[in-house]
Write a structure and sequence with these properties.
There is one protein chain. The protein has 720 residues and is of the alpha/beta class. It has 4 domains: 1-99 and 283-371, Rossmann fold, CATH 3.40.50.300; 135-282 and 572-586, no CATH class; 375-490 and 545-562, 3-Layer(aba) Sandwich (Rossmann fold); 605-719, Aspartate Aminotransferase, domain 1 (Alpha-Beta Complex), CATH 3.90.1150. The chain has a 7-stranded mixed beta sheet, sandwiched between helices. The chain starts with a strand and ends with a helix.
Length: 720
């Protein structure tokens, strides 16, 4: 099954139009964007198609292809519903509906269950004791199935019994289960008499001669009786029906020396539920709906969720919602749809991630951070900080055998506190010593205080216990200035030489430049020259002052080892009963909640120009006017941190307005831009805010005509 078109109008805040051609659809958006409403609407549609007595009070069009290449189209407007199969009008399309619609839900909110899946489930329970029901075979699962935490146990048991190599690999590599000590099933034999002699009861009678099994013993029993794993999953589900009719009360599995399913992480339990559902609950021509399956999942496991879909996508339609940038990065661009205030936005993946997180790291940097293996992570302000510290540590590492760290630069001191806060408060189980390192200047001092992790400082004890520390660069005794950056660790003579070389190199290029731009260029060149010079040092004593920094890192490591918060050991609770009560019966009746439509923030050029000098404001307006001349369709589209120039819905270029300059990004991939003057910098391997791999720093209008020719290449490329 593959959804080709979906148009939903006036369901709560939804006004969504989707044309699609793939087996995976991902709806991305912040809370309140309408993601869950869209899943609800899709569920309501199929609830009505399976059973017409359930009404749908909104208009929609749905078109999908079956695995047998039939095209099914439903058009509903007002009270009129038209059905088509391969273009032919039909009165009944029941033979062409999905085999199953399965919702996998991880939250405590049970609105989706109560509105759509609960009626099917409760009718299923009501009639399970009837030998026959017209049009219903109760040896099968309900057409609409809602799976949550009550099905972890039967999912795990079904996967353990399976002989499939992919399932065995999942058990070993993902769940990390090496051994299974025992399987214990609590049978409720007193309820057998309330069950008609259906297939589920026959199955249970075949395994109830004892309550505890070894895994191989249980597998052999199942095989000897002629059952396959699909039967096991199905009949355990049927036997777990609630209230007075259930005939299994609990399933407990002990593995890896007496661990239970409660010892698995949240991510592992979600992966378990998804894997078993795809494998056993709904097979070809089934629709799977997953609402934020990555919520509370360790960052390293988020991509694993997408990978788990791969073997099953060819004959199933999978629809997910998320606001995770990691999930978004793992999905092909054409499968990702952004929802803002109930509408599907046509945005590329980079735009989507920015709207969600506002982060600046590209995928390579995110993956590098996740893949870091060393026990200590340093978060520094800039690229030069990282290179100088790495260089110094390479020379002095024999003196610090106990230290091992990775360094990540954040492009600004302002980005370090939110990064540390995010690591500390998110679902990430970070388990590393994380140290923010700041320049000693006005900005660095301010952002250091914002971390609330400064060391030593007893007021920050709780954060230190969690492994989060911060410091400014320690000054050596010779340094008398109030301010201190990484370059000040070197002897002053080296800094002076680097400065003189920089001054000489720009001496013939200052005509027409402002003092501010000359100073900025001089500073950048001095830093570059000093780093190049430091790389030639053979005497490790040239790096002697860096020992002050490494001594602080060492002290933090010792302090953390002595004070880190130990994991709380909690007695294992009674095993969660998969049959206790489903969400429907646990929930009290809730009043209908008012739907609040959250609108995306609108940004303006005025906001971007607030801190710009009059000269830069004038410069921006000059460039804007020239860019708008490049195409009749060109429009200005201010974003959170940049101003985009778009033709149609495609971004041609972006401008970021700084206080004393502009930064321009041209939306072309590396190797696509013809730039004879070499004005554009290749930023394909570094974090940057704009679209494309080319960045130009603009301080005046000297090259405006040439730069317009560069941007025009992007216009022409996009229009092809």
């Amino acid at each position: 099954m593959q959804i080709k078109e979906l148009h939903i109008k006036n369901y709560k805040n939804l006004d969504a139009d989707l044309t699609h051609n793939s087996d995976l659809i991902a709806f991305i958006g912040n809370n309140g964007s309408g993601k869950s409403n869209l899943l609800e609407a899709l569920s309501h549609i199929f609830r009505n198609l399976y059973k017409s007595s359930y009404k749908v009070d909104f208009d929609y069009t749905l078109e999908y292809a079956t695995s047998k290449n039939n095209t099914v189209r439903i058009e509903k407007k007002g009270s009129q519903k038209n059905l088509f199969v391969d273009g032919t009008a039909m009165l009944d399309i029941s033979l062409y509906l999905p085999q199953k619609v399965i919702a996998i839900y991880s939250g405590e909110e049970d609105r989706l269950f109560e509105d759509c899946y609960g009626p099917f489930y409760l009718e299923f329970i009501k009639n399970i004791n009837k030998a026959q029901q017209q049009g219903t075979d109760y040896s099968n699962l309900p057409k609409m199935l809602f799976l949550n935490k009550f099905y972890w146990h039967l999912s795990l048991l079904s996967l353990l019994v399976s002989n499939s190599e992919s399932n065995k690999k999942f058990i070993k590599d993902v769940l990390k289960i090496d051994t299974v000590e025992k399987i214990k099933i609590d049978f409720l034999k007193r309820n057998y008499e309330h069950y008609n002699d259906n297939l589920a009861l026959q199955f249970i009678r075949g395994i109830d001669s004892k309550s505890e099994y070894k895994l191989e013993e249980f597998k052999k029993l199942i095989e000897d009786k002629g059952y396959v794993t699909d039967d096991l999953y199905k009949y355990l589900y049927l036997a777990n029906t609630p209230k007075g009719s259930k005939i299994i009360d609990d399933i407990a599995i002990k593995f890896n020396k007496n661990l239970t399913i409660t010892d698995l992480s949240e991510g592992e339990k979600k992966l378990l539920l998804i894997k078993a559902a795809l494998e056993f609950a709904g097979q070809e021509d089934s629709l799977f709906i997953l609402d934020e399956p990555d919520a509370h999942v360790h960052l390293n496991n988020k991509e694993q969720i997408i990978k788990s879909f791969e073997p099953y996508k060819s004959n199933r339609q999978i629809v997910i919602t998320t606001h995770s940038p990691t999930i978004t990065q793992a999905i092909k661009d054409e499968n990702v749809y952004m929802l803002i205030a109930g509408k599907i936005e046509d945005k590329n993946r980079q735009e989507i991630i920015e709207e969600i997180t506002g982060e600046f790291w590209n995928k390579h940097q995110q993956n590098s951070f996740l893949a870091a293996k060393k026990p200590i992570v340093l978060l520094v302000e800039g690229k030069h900080d990282k290179e100088h510290i790495n260089l110094a540590f390479y020379k002095l590492k024999d003196e610090y055998p106990e230290l091992s760290f990775d360094i990540f630069y954040m492009n600004s001191a302002c980005n370090i506190p939110p990064m540390m806060l995010g690591l500390r408060t998110s679902e990430i189980e970070y388990n590393k010593l994380c140290i923010g390192v700041f320049d000693v200047d006005a900005t660095g001092n301010r952002e250091l205080s914002h971390t609330e992790c400064q060391f030593p400082n007893q007021q920050n004890k709780k954060r230190h216990e969690l492994g989060f520390y911060a410091t400014g660069y320690p000054k050596h005794t010779v340094h008398k200035s109030e301010f201190f950056t990484v370059e000040n660790f070197y002897d002053t003579q080296h800094l002076l030489e680097a400065y003189k070389d920089a001054l000489n190199s720009i001496a013939t290029h200052v005509n027409g430049k402002s003092i501010e731009s000359i100073n900025e260029k001089l500073k950048d060149l001095t830093k570059t020259n000093l780093l190049a010079k430091a790389k030639t040092f053979t005497n490790k004593e040239e790096f002697k002052n860096f020992r002050l920094l490494f001594d602080i890192i060492k002290a933090m490591k010792v302090h953390y080892a002595a004070n880190k918060k130990q994991p709380t050991v909690v007695a294992a609770p009674a095993t969660t009963k998969p049959t206790d009560k489903p969400a429907k019966e646990k929930a009290t009746k809730k009043a209908a909640k008012k739907v609040v439509t959250v609108k995306a923030k609108t940004y303006t050029e005025k906001e971007h120009l607030e801190n710009a000098s009059p000269e830069i404001t004038k410069l921006y307006n000059e460039f804007k006017a020239e860019i708008l001349k490049l195409s009749n369709e060109m429009k200005v589209s201010p974003k959170k941190i940049r101003i985009s120039f778009e033709t149609g819905e495609k971004i041609v270029a972006d401008i970021s307005i700084l206080k004393k300059s502009l930064k321009l990004w041209i939306n072309l991939k590396k190797g696509q831009l013809k730039d004879n003057k070499k004005l554009a910098r290749d930023v394909s391997a570094v974090g940057h805010w704009g679209n494309g791999d080319y960045e130009i720093a603009i301080e005046d209008n000297k090259n405006i005509e040439y730069i317009m020719n560069l941007i025009k290449q992007s216009v022409e490329f996009i229009s092809v």
